[in-house]
Write a structure and sequence with these properties.
The protein is mostly beta strands and about 280 residues long. Helix content is about 10%, strand content about 65%.
């Protein structure tokens, strides 16, 4: 998938960033102001609210009750805009010095009206060439993870995590009937929980600046279900005041889901990458 090349570039940049951070540890020790054994961005409670710009790549196919389907690209076959904006919510709490629980949620909604340039089988119907159709894709993503910090000192935190992404997909086709005598619509909904494991890190190289990384992935195949997930982010934090900070960064997300059930067969290959910004309120040490 096209998003994978961004993931490889991201991981390479991530490795260089980590190497550079370690190389400069001695020169920045005097700038760290945390006195409780953790980097200053690590608080007992933190709530983040922000937005991100996602550049999407999407290939989808779905058939109901044993009906076949065709795989089509939202961007190439349906001329859907690759760029979307979304609101992101994240809450993080620490249980002691080394235990972390994180919850996040965001939604990506995309829709378009297009005159089809190819025949598409979706749901229970076949949508013919030159028919005008209204198409939408609504994706709600919830994530819950637990992390344990193996390294925790006033400058650096490094840990491993295990979590779940729960993704609720709602896709629809509406044939408007303006260019043909046909008029019908199809709706496909399903929820897919995908576990992931990975690592995270925070490096406070100044009393107001810090850098953070996170990378998680997993592949699951069980009976009629196949799932693959890659989630990565690289960010910088700037402390505005004692309880407030601004986060800037870049994120990569790639997911593949294949279902082959009696009532629903589906192929969902979706990824995005893009920058994000959020404001965080933190309290408690």
């Amino acid at each position: 998938m096209g998003c994978n090349k961004y993931a490889l570039l991201f991981i390479l940049s991530l490795s260089m960033c980590v190497w550079g951070s370690y190389a400069q540890v001695d020169s920045v020790k005097k700038n760290s102001v945390s006195m409780d054994g953790k980097p200053w961005p690590v608080s007992r409670f933190s709530a983040h609210l922000g937005a991100f710009w996602a550049i999407n790549t999407t290939q989808i196919g779905a058939g109901i009750d044993g009906r076949g389907y065709s795989v089509f690209s939202f961007e190439n076959d349906l001329q859907m805009d690759r760029n979307t904006y979304s609101i992101l919510f994240n809450f993080d709490t620490r249980l002691g010095k080394r235990n972390r629980i994180n919850f996040s949620y965001y939604n990506i909604f995309r829709n378009t009206t297009v005159v089809l340039n190819k025949e598409i089988e979706f749901g229970e119907h076949t949508y013919p060439v030159d028919s005008e159709s209204d198409i939408f894709l609504n994706t709600n993503i919830f994530r819950l993870s637990y992390g344990y910090s193996f390294v925790s000192n006033p400058q650096l935190e490094l840990g491993a995590l295990v979590g779940f992404h729960v993704m609720a997909f709602n896709m629809g086709f509406d044939l408007s009937g303006q260019t043909t005598d046909l008029s019908y619509n199809d709706r496909v909904k399903f929820t897919a929980p995908l576990p992931d494991i990975g690592f995270y890190g925070t490096y406070a190289f100044h009393d107001r600046w810090a850098a953070s990384i996170e990378l998680s992935s997993l592949y699951v195949k069980y009976k009629s279900f196949t799932g693959r997930l890659l989630n990565a982010s690289l960010g910088a934090q700037y402390r505005l005041a004692d309880h407030w900070e601004v986060d800037l960064g870049y994120t990569v997300f790639d997911v593949l889901i294949r279902l082959n059930r009696r009532d629903l067969s589906a192929n969902f290959d979706w990824g995005y990458n893009g920058p994000f910004v959020n404001v965080a309120y933190k309290f408690g040490r």
